[in-house]
Design goal:
single chain; 1010 residues; eight-stranded mixed β-sheet; 18% strand; elongated; binds pyridoxal-5'-phosphate
């Protein structure tokens, strides 16, 4: 006879009452309580006290009784408020008494009675389930410091005896039921048993079934019956409690999650413990159902033994089809942990590295025009047709959307609640009556046959063909490990079968390698052609069980197990969700709020929301290659500059009347880049301010007012500068040339009136300038000559050799000073030198700088000879509230440092030369290109009607620029006739960007000119 099959004691109530009186000196009313092996009575005394009187099974060894007693005593000392029974001494001061009965010797014990109803008779509210977990966690925490020889026993309910259930399998008649148990035990043997050896063990209650958990006033009030307490893996405590609580529950894993969360809050579980809970529950069920079956064979009739038999089989059946990764994820998430350990790190890594990944398809999805499809409503024709598996209808609906919205990629977002999954396998196995409808991947719709490439190096883990309707068609699973220990997987679905079959398990794919092509209807499960791309943070060997859609209730779990693959695909959130005002609203609002002459670029203006290096990204997540914005010199949002600004802004920003290091650090560094004569600095905020100040200095120094300028020049927007900017005063709204402004002709080589070498042309223009200067009427001697070293609004005009040297000499001879406006062209843009004037072998008296020097932060500088600065200090204070503030200086310094660290001048030379070559090839192809010119990354393409006549062609130039924008590349036009395509890409421009620029120029020119 074993403890399990020895009959229960069978004392009458009268005998029991007598035993109680004799050994404990207590008299009261006895009511029989249910018990599997022992005989239990509830005792109520006349004075209202309550006890439980227990007559133990005769087969119970004394060591077991002593063990239980010691356990309760330990708890009393360790956690006196814990809601468990407390031992009542016998009249002789013992913890229990031994009595002789008909079948042998029995131990009798009295413990305090805990008020409450068994959980079995209560609704299992979330609070009660959580409370059950808490109580068990608190108990096991207290028991962690407890040990007893009696705890080390092996009996049928100790979880590690689960494999013995196989011996009882003969009692299970139904082959399907046998298979269920066998498979639970197979998993136990192969995966759980080896793991258990490494998990924490300790004494646990081991029987928190819903008859042993007591509830009062809607709260868990006690745990009774320590008869099954045993030394076991601690996590078995939870497995047992969950097993009973889950019976008959519609969403059993959620029920378990509540208990586990309560437990974890008191006594935190370890990662490995989470992974075995589901399997331990199944093992416990295997013990339970085989035990019931065996007992039935033994014809035992006690209904207590069978009460949970049917629900146990049902639960085992339900759990057998649940993915343990998902179950574990739900349990972990309920405890406030990542559903998959490391998921956050994977997400963060992908987010930080998005820009460095190879393109998923060509062109890169970020560059393509995208449209978010709606597969969440039957009102959408595409969704309705897809749900009905009407291929033709779906194709028509998709084509209609493309026509309406003009996109090349349709997007099916992660997390979309969809109505299109109508096949039976979309029913939930986690929650009864629910369906799986939340999309766990990213769909990108593109033509069948589109090639898909892996953004990261990968190993092929599995490939298969799932040919069923609404299934995946060709399917591939890749493993990625971009950093040691950072492992995740990607699932690629709806592929064409031949290309999916080309992949071999174990095959290594480098970043950018072809994965497969998109399948058509016949091969992709009957969908409009698209890729289902899913990120997976937990390992799978079997492709067929990875869910592509999940239940709404578990979205936070899906976020960790199958995170949004947007970064992996190179897409940003704006591609899926626009924020702020629409473009139309903004245009309207600008009309209301801003001056009408605050202009916008392009026929259909763009709303930009992000800048990343060479890319500007619009509100629909489309990335445009920025070849125009020379302010973002180091690329948009260069981290060095962003950090320098943020760091200093967080510390201090104030004006130059206080001493601060940054202004000296910055000007020292700037001085190193300039000829030694230019040793004095004024820091301002805009190019206009710099030029305005330069004029004031020149005028103060010379005592004169007149200015010499190049025709069509632009130097800024203040009145003083409009007066010296022919580009402004000569055009609409301008008041014409003031009498103190004198224009020199633009020394264009391309349109020179003489034929000759550049030197000869330079000489020609210089002579003319000299004549003009010496011929100035009296009283109009120049204070200064101001010129851009490469006139930009005049159409990217490169001054011929010798010209500047000669003009500077003429101006100086006439008593004027020379100002180089390097606001656009300075700071290394020309590649060979830091400042464009250096190429001409001249040293200006004043140099103005702006646009690029703060990489987008408003920063501008006047560098001037000391002598002029001294004259300017004539008693009038120079104060500029913002000029020279520490934040601006920190930004400027970061720009200078980065230019050097990243060797960007050399890069500008290299990429510039490469671009010029490409432009020359275009010139051979398109007769409308009259001239191409450039130095470093400052380039122009002049469009003409006829190469012979050189007649300006402004409209085609603007159409080319607008077409290039439609194709994803930003450029501008300039020049007196707006016929020069102006290119000023960031200094970080790479070969691949140059190739793209040339390719798009080619396409745009083909579209516009041919
Ligand atoms: C050559 C030149 N100088 C000065 C300025 C004026 O600079 P800001 O717009 O910063 O005032 C500009 C602006 O376009 C410019 O191109």
């Amino acid at each position: 006879m074993t403890i399990v099959n020895n009959p229960r004691p069978a004392f009458s109530s009268a005998e029991a009452r007598e035993l109680l009186r004799a050994h404990f000196g207590i008299e009261g009313e006895l009511t029989s309580l249910p018990s599997e092996r022992d005989q239990n009575f509830r005792v109520e005394t006349a004075d209202g006290r309550g006890f439980t009187f227990k007559i133990m099974n005769a087969a119970e060894p004394l060591s077991a009784i002593e063990f239980q007693t010691a356990l309760l005593r330990h708890l009393e000392g360790c956690d006196p408020d814990l809601a468990v029974p407390r031992i009542v001494h016998t009249t002789g001061g013992q913890d229990y008494a031994l009595i002789d009965g008909a079948d042998g010797r029995y131990a009798v014990r009295l413990v305090t009675y805990l008020a409450g109803c068994p959980l079995a008779e209560q609704t299992k509210t979330p609070e009660i389930l959580h409370g059950t977990g808490r109580l068990l966690g608190r108990l096991d925490r207290a028991l962690a410091s407890f040990g007893h020889p009696g705890a080390h026993r092996s009996f049928d309910w100790e979880i590690r005896t689960a494999p013995l259930s196989r011996a009882r399998l003969h009692a299970v008649a139904d082959p399907e039921q046998r298979r269920l148990v066998e498979s639970a035990l197979d998993i136990y043997d192969s995966r759980v048993a080896p793991l258990l050896k490494h998990l924490r063990c300790g004494v646990i209650h081991n029987d928190a079934n819903d008859w042993n958990v007591l509830v009062a006033d809607g709260r868990v009030n006690g745990l009774i019956d320590f008869g099954d307490a045993v030394h076991s893996p601690i996590v078995a405590e939870l497995a047992v409690a969950c097993t009973y609580a889950m019976l008959d529950e519609a969403s059993p894993i959620e029920t378990a999650a509540r208990i586990v969360a309560g437990y974890h809050a008191e006594y935190p579980l370890q990662d490995a413990e989470f992974t075995v809970i589901l399997h331990l529950i199944m093992a416990r069920l295997a013990i339970s159902v085989t035990m019931s079956a065996a007992r039935r064979l033994g014809a035992a009739q006690d209904p207590y033994l069978f009460v949970s038999e049917k629900p146990a089989w049902d639960l085992l059946r339900k759990l057998s089809v649940i993915d343990h990764r998902i179950a574990t994820g739900i349990l972990r998430q309920a405890c406030g942990l990542e559903a998959a350990p490391g998921a956050r790190r994977i997400r963060e890594w992908l987010s930080a590295n998005r820009r460095n990944l190879a393109p998923l398809m060509r062109p890169h999805p970020a560059r393509q025009a995208k449209h978010v499809l709606n597969l969440g409503s039957l009102d959408e024709p595409l969704a309705a047709a897809s749900a009905a598996q009407d291929n033709d209808g779906a194709e028509r609906a998709y084509a209609e959307l493309v026509r309406e919205h003009g996109f090349t990629l349709g997007l099916g977002p992660w997390g979309e609640r969809r109505i299109i999954y109508t096949a039976p396998f979309f029913e939930s196995v986690l929650a009864e009556g629910k369906r799986r409808n939340v999309h766990l991947g990213l769909d990108i719709f593109a033509p069948a046959g589109t090639e898909m490439f892996t953004p990261l190096a990968a190993t092929v883990v599995a490939t298969t063909i799932n040919p069923d309707p609404q299934d995946y068609g060709g399917l591939i699973l890749l493993e990625h490990e971009p950093e040691p220990g950072l492992r995740f997987w990607t699932l690629w679905g709806h592929l064409d079968h031949a290309s999916a079959r080309e992949r071999r398990i174990g095959e290594r794919l480098e970043a950018g390698a072809l994965v497969a092509r998109l399948g058509d209807y016949a091969e992709n499960g009957g969908w409009v052609p698209h890729i289902h791309l899913q990120l997976i943070t937990v390992p799978y060997e079997d492709l067929s069980i990875i869910p592509g859609v999940g239940e709404e209730a578990f979205v936070p779990v899906w976020e960790d197990l199958y995170p949004r693959p947007y970064d992996f695909a190179g897409l940003i959130s704006e591609a899926f969700e626009r924020s702020g005002r629409t473009r139309e609203e903004l245009i309207e609002k600008r009309r209301e709020r801003l001056g009408r002459n605050v202009s916008m670029s392009y026929r259909t203006p763009l709303k930009m929301v992000r800048g990343e290096g060479v890319w500007l990204i619009d509100d629909a997540g489309r990335a445009y290659l920025d070849c125009y914005n020379n302010v973002a010199h180091l690329g948009h949002c260069h981290p060095n500059v962003v950090q320098a600004i943020a760091r200093q802004a967080a510390l201090l920003n104030t004006n130059t009347r206080y001493l601060h290091d940054t202004i000296i650090d910055y000007t020292d560094r700037l001085a190193q880049s300039l000829p030694k004569e230019l040793d004095t600095f004024f820091i301002v905020c805009t190019g206009s301010e710099a030029n305005d100040l330069a004029l004031r200095m020149a005028r103060t120094f010379t005592g004169r007012n007149d200015m010499l300028v190049l025709d069509w020049a632009y130097h800024g927007h203040t009145q003083a500068l409009i007066d010296i900017s022919p580009y402004k005063y000569k055009r609409k709204g301008g008041r014409g040339r003031p009498s103190f402004t004198h224009e020199l002709p633009i020394p264009e080589v391309y349109r020179a009136p003489i034929v000759g070498t550049p030197e000869e042309i330079g000489h020609y223009y210089a002579e003319e300038a000299g004549r003009l200067i010496s011929g100035l009427p009296s009283g109009h001697a120049p204070a200064a000559f101001i010129a851009e070293t490469i006139p930009s609004v005049a159409g990217q005009v490169f001054l011929p050799p010798g010209y500047l040297k000669s003009v500077y000499a003429s101006v100086r001879a006439a008593g004027g000073v020379v100002i180089a406006d390097e606001v656009q062209v300075g700071l290394g843009r020309v590649g060979d030198s830091m400042w464009a004037f250096e190429e001409h072998g001249v040293v200006p008296d004043i140099v103005t700088m702006g646009k690029p020097i703060g990489n987008g932060h408003p920063l501008a500088v006047v560098a001037v000879r000391r002598e002029i600065a001294e004259a300017f200090a004539n008693g009038m204070e120079y104060f500029n509230t913002f000029g020279g503030n520490p934040v601006s200086c920190a930004a400027g310094l970061a720009v200078l440092e980065t230019l050097e660290q990243e060797n960007l001048l050399a890069n500008a030379s290299e990429q510039g030369a490469y671009l010029l070559d490409g432009m020359k090839r275009l010139q051979e192809k398109y007769p409308a290109i009259g001239d191409v010119r450039g130095r470093g990354l400052f380039l122009g393409i002049e469009i003409v009607r006829d190469r012979a006549t050189k007649e300006h062609a402004g409209d085609p130039a603007s159409r080319i620029s607008n077409r290039a924008k439609e194709l994803g590349v930003l450029m501008g036009t300039d020049g007196p006739h707006d016929n020069v395509i102006k290119l000023r890409p960031p200094m970080i421009f790479k070969r691949e960007h140059a190739d793209l620029l040339i390719q798009i120029l080619d396409r745009s020119m083909a579209d516009v000119l041919q």
